[in-house]
Amino acid sequence: MSGRLRVAAVVTRLEGGAGEMVLRGGRALDPAEYEVTIVAGSGGRLLREAGAAGLETVLVPALRAPIAPHADVLALAGLVRLLARRKFDVVHTNCAKAGTLGRLAARRTGAPRIVHTYHGFPFHEFQRVTRRATYVAVERALGRITDLSLCVGTGVAVEALRRRLVPPERVRTIGVAVDPVRVLTPQSRHDARRALRLPPDVPVVGTVGRLTYQKAPDDFVAALRALRPRGVVGVWVGGGELAGEARDLAERAGVRLVFTGDRADAVDLLPAFDVFAMSSRYEGLPLAVVEAMRCGIPVAATAVNAVGDVVVPGETGLLAPPGRPELLAAAVARLLDEPCEALRMARAAAARIAGRHDSAALAEALGDAYGGSRTPAAARVMHVE
C-alpha cells in the first residue's frame, strides 16, 4: 500500500463523549501515515477544535440523531456521494445513526474496510420491548457488513457478543482516551470553585455530560433533592437539548444546581467536586468518569454497560441501579459522610487506571483496526447537502 491511508470517521454529532473520542483518535494517529476526514451531521466546539488540529471536516446536515425518514434518506444519499467521490480506504462509523447510514453507504460504494465503534447501544431497558428488538435486529444486520467492531469497554463488548450483533472474531475491546487532568489539590480545588463561584465549605456533587435523556438529568435532580438536608450544591457541566427542562425541574425541586453549559475546560472544573455522580440510564464507558478518577474525585455512578470496568463497587467507587435516584443519593451520601473511605476508593481508582486510557493506546487500537497506522488532512470545513 502506498501513500497515506485515507480514513472517513463518521459520527452523528461531533459532540459529547463519542465526538471527543473521534476527535482524539484523529489527533492521535500519525499524520505521516493516516489522512483522517471527520464526517458529521453537526458540531460546535469540537468542530472548531478539529479544524485547529488540522483535521478535515465534512458536514452532512441531514445526518441527525432522531429517526426522521426524509432527513435519513437525504443523509444516506449525501454519504453515498461523498464516499463514492473520495474513495476512502477505511470508513469508520460511530454512534447509532451514523453507524447505520454510514455503513450502508460504505457497503453501497464498495469501501475496502468498514469499522464501527460501539460507544454504547441505541437499545436499553427503558425502551418498549418491540422498539428494543427492532434496534437489535438492525444492529445484527449491520454486523454482517462490518469488518471489525470496536467496543468501548468490556461491558459493551460482552453485550454485543451476548446479543449476537457481531461474530466473535470481529469484536475488539478498546478503552477511552482522556486528556491530562489537573489533579485534586487544595489549590486546584480553590481555583475550580472560584471559577464556578462556589464557596469553599459547601459539599459539591457534580457531573459532566450532555443534558439528554441518556444522561438522566431528572434522576440527578432527584438525587440532589434527597441530599438536600446535607446542604449539597450540584454542578452539571455540559449543554444539551434538555437544558431548559432540567433547569425548571431543579427549580421546582428546590435544589441548588449550577449549569455551566458546554465548557472546553471541563476537566479543570472537576477538582471543585467532593463527589462525581453519574446518573445515566445507559452508557458505554464515559470519558468523564475516567477523568474524575484520574483527578482523584470519588465516584458514584449507575451500573450500566462498561462503567463497571473502572468503578468496582466498594473498591474504586460505588454503583447504583439506573433509574433509582434514591439509591444513587445513598451512594453519594456514603462518600460524603465517610471521607476516609471515599479517599481510599479515589486512590484505588487512580491506581487502577494509571498508565491506561491515553491517546497512544487509542492510536494503536485504531491502527490495528484499520490495518496500518495514519491521520490529519487540510483544516477546512465542507458541506454536503
UniProtKB/TrEMBL annotation:
Gene3D superfamilies reported in the protein's UniProt record:
Glycogen Phosphorylase B (3.40.50.2000)
The record, for SUPFAM superfamilies, names:
UDP-Glycosyltransferase/glycogen phosphorylase (SSF53756)
Instruction: Write down a Pfam family by its short name.
Output: Glyco_transf_4
Question: What is the name of this protein?
Answer: Second mannosyl transferase
Could you tell me which residue ranges the Glycosyltransferase subfamily 4-like N-terminal domain spans?
A: 16-180
Identify the EC number(s).
2.-.-.-
- Tagged with keyword Transferase: yes
Question: What keywords is this UniProt entry annotated with?
Answer: Glycosyltransferase, Transferase
GO MF term set: hexosyltransferase activity
Q: Which domain of life is it from?
A: Bacteria
UniProt-listed InterPro entries: Glyco_trans_4-like_N, Glycosyltransferase_grp1
Which PANTHER family does the entry link to? Answer: SULFOQUINOVOSYL TRANSFERASE SQD2
Any GO BP annotation: carbohydrate derivative biosynthetic process
Q: What class of enzyme is it?
A: transferase
Q: Per the UniProt record, which residue ranges are transmembrane?
A: none
